[in-house]
Structure formats: structure tokens, C-alpha cells
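User: If only I could read C-alpha cells as easily as an amino acid sequence. Underneath my words sits a plain record pairing an amino acid chain with its C-alpha cells. This is the protein in question:
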Amino acid sequence: MGCITLDIAGTTLTEAVVACLPHPLIGGVILFTPNYQSRRSC
């Protein structure tokens, strides 16, 4: 089994997401436009 890549919903992390991030099977997080409040926060 390979690593899992996450897509985070919204602009803040929930406690559940924060708890998942250190898991050894999490290989990365993808941020899309909805994850930013403004261009400046990129």
C-alpha cells in the first residue's frame, strides 16, 4: 500500500485532520483555491 494524499476542506484544520497528519501513511496535503482566504495568504 502506498501513501495517502489529503485534500483539506476550508481554510482551517479541524482537530480530526490535525490528529491524522502525523500518521505514517499520510504522504502529503494538497491545497486548492478554497484553502486560501486571499492571494496574499498563498
The helical segments are 15-20. The first strand starts at residue 4 and ends at 7.
